[in-house]
From TrEMBL:
Signal peptide: 1-16
Source species of the chain: Phoenix dactylifera
Domain Cupin type-1, chain residue ranges per copy: 49-195
A single GO molecular function term of this UniProt record: manganese ion binding
PANTHER family registered for this protein in UniProt: GERMIN-LIKE PROTEIN SUBFAMILY 3 MEMBER 3
UniProt entry tagged with the keyword Secreted: yes
Name the record gives this protein: Germin-like protein
Record-annotated disulphide pairs: C20-C35
Main location: secreted
Length: 205
């Protein structure tokens, strides 16, 4: 009996016990994507080249985020990790936002970035970061990044989830059809300011 048990331990196990490459034909759920069948998995599923490509910052926030989440990088599905590239042109900003499903670690690779977060006690923690410096943002807390110099800045960020989620506060408030009267109530802004922001960000109501 003992030799049979030893043989079971020594035999190679199915890849399903090692990883779960995302089947992007399925839907993303809170527990991730379903696994690809073993015969469809390739080396390409475990390689992502997008973090070496400069993002397009010609937009309203003068910033770009290139994600390497499960949806773009199937090999990270189920592994509890992912990454992204952050490009900030001069004057660029990633507005206050949260990642409901992950903590974030930012490493500046070029330029200067002012970054910070707000705790649930409304305490603010922020710092001006230079090349090689790192800051962490705890899961679910509001945080931001702003170009702190006059030249482009770049950072690589990693997350404790393959699908960290994202909600940008200003877009959540002003880029949808929530009636202006309700937005004014919950933000203490006047009607003119709310309608101005809705117009800028594409909201209605």
């Amino acid at each position: 009996m003992l030799p049979i048990l030893l043989l079971c331990f020594l035999l190679p196990s199915s890849h399903a016990a090692d990883f779960c490459v995302a089947d992007l034909m399925g839907s993303l759920t809170p527990s991730g994507y379903q696994c690809k069948v073993e015969s469809a998995v390739t080396t390409d599923d475990f390689v992502f080249t997008g973090l070496g490509v400069v993002g397009n910052t010609s937009n309203i926030i003068k910033a770009a985020v290139t994600p390497a989440f499960a949806a773009q990088f199937p090999g990270v599905n189920g592994l509890g990790i992912s990454a992204a590239r952050l490009d900030l042109a001069a004057g660029g900003v990633i507005p206050l936002h949260t990642h409901p499903a992950a903590s974030e670690l930012l490493v500046v690779t070029k330029g200067i970035i002012v970054a910070g977060f707000i705790s649930s006690a409304n305490t603010v923690y922020y710092m001006t970061l230079h090349k090689g410096e790192t800051m962490v943002f705890p899961q679910g807390l509001l945080h931001f990044q702003v170009n702190g110099g006059g030249t482009p800045a770049v950072a690589i960020v990693s997350f404790s989830s393959p699908s960290p989620g994202l909600q940008i506060t200003s877009f959540a408030l002003f880029a949808n059809n929530l009636p202006s009267a309700l937005v004014e109530k919950v933000t203490f802004l006047d009607d003119a300011e709310v309608k101005k922001l809705k117009k800028v960000l594409g909201g209605t109501g």
